[in-house]
Amino acid sequence: MRPLAAALVSSTANPAQAISAELAKRCREMAVRAHPPQPAGTTAYAAAERTYFRECVARDGNMQK
Question: Minimal CB count within 10 Å: which of 8, 10, 30, 64?
């Protein structure tokens, strides 16, 4: 690949940023505490838990109570 083409490809690519394992673990634990699993047949908690986890990651683990 030519240098200019390589520069264009690398500058236009926008890979998702990876989060640290520590942040993921901390947010997962907080999400489970905030939205504990419910009995079989109820699934609303799972969506709330995922939303909480995403928000926690976006805030870098700084969730206010």
Answer: 64
